[in-house]
């Protein structure tokens, strides 16, 4: 028996960071803090509870997907120059040149062994969509691909047991979707399947996603300014609506961009939100961002 999703009240949310923030992506909870990429300011930043955001590194090629190696060092996709970088003690170090294998590499998830799963955009905006696979960069430097026919793979998450990977197909038509894979012991992706489907990419395009300890996914829908908690099979259990009266696509407005669970009990859902428009995003990711937080029932995955 299906039930209507629970709409979480607006007054349960609180703003935890705002001011001098741009288009915020790649939310990751790591070692007691929320990390994220500010694509407008070309910086990796960190937000510790009760403190203002702290800039950790400048990424001239514009940071996108974030993850962490087994040693805790940040790894980041530099989207403008198609590189995977490591933030080391002496600055940025190149881990891989992705240009030969990925057109516009974007979001990323990194597993506990240090494997990086990267979603390439695959095609230029305004041209026909091209299906692609994910790029897998192994800790020893080997690069492989996994999956096929993914349309604009974007947000990527890995379950707590490391056995399931979920990726958002942002602009798949006629319906956007979350696609899941089984992850083998050697990091390969098998059993490609539909996790959940939504509406038209003109309204329900998906951006960043997070995952909780039950394997449900928090997905951001920027065009309609909404976050949804989705179980495998498509059941939506919870909805968060950001400024529901504000116009979004195509005129611009308040975009829901990404979500991640963290906090002392891993039950704080951090919401990355940016006021922008498609035209402003094309013009250097021009946006004004903020981070909100809300307490939820199901905890995230301890790092």
Summarize the structure in short.
With 303 residues, the chain is mainly β. The protein contains two helices and 25 strands. The radius of gyration is 17 Å and the shape is globular.
Describe this structure in words.
It is a single chain. By secondary structure, the protein is mostly beta strands. The chain has a five-stranded mixed beta sheet with strand order 1-22-21-20-19, with no helix packed on it. Strands 2-25-24-23 form a four-stranded antiparallel beta sheet. A four-stranded antiparallel beta sheet has the order 3-4-5-6, with no helix packed on it. The two termini are 34 Å apart. The protein has two helices and 25 strands. Strand 16 (164-169) and strand 17 (177-183) form a beta hairpin. It is globular. The mean pLDDT is 94. It has helices spanning 201-204, 278-282, and strands at 6-7, 14-18, 24-30, 33-38, 43-47, 54-58, 63-68, 74-78, 83-88, 91-97, 105-110, 116-120, 132-137, 143-150, 153-158, 164-169, 177-183, 189-197, 209-211, 217-221, 226-230, 236-241, 253-262, 268-276, 288-295.
Topology:
Blueprint: E1 6-7, E2 14-18, E3 24-30, E4 33-38, E5 43-47, E6 54-58, E7 63-68, E8 74-78, E9 83-88, E10 91-97, E11 105-110, E12 116-120, E13 132-137, E14 143-150, E15 153-158, E16 164-169, E17 177-183, E18 189-197, H1 201-204, E19 209-211, E20 217-221, E21 226-230, E22 236-241, E23 253-262, E24 268-276, H2 278-282, E25 288-295
Parallel strand pairs: 1-22
Antiparallel strand pairs: 2-25, 3-4, 4-5, 5-6, 7-8, 8-9, 9-10, 11-12, 12-13, 13-14, 15-16, 16-17, 17-18, 19-20, 20-21, 21-22, 23-24, 24-25
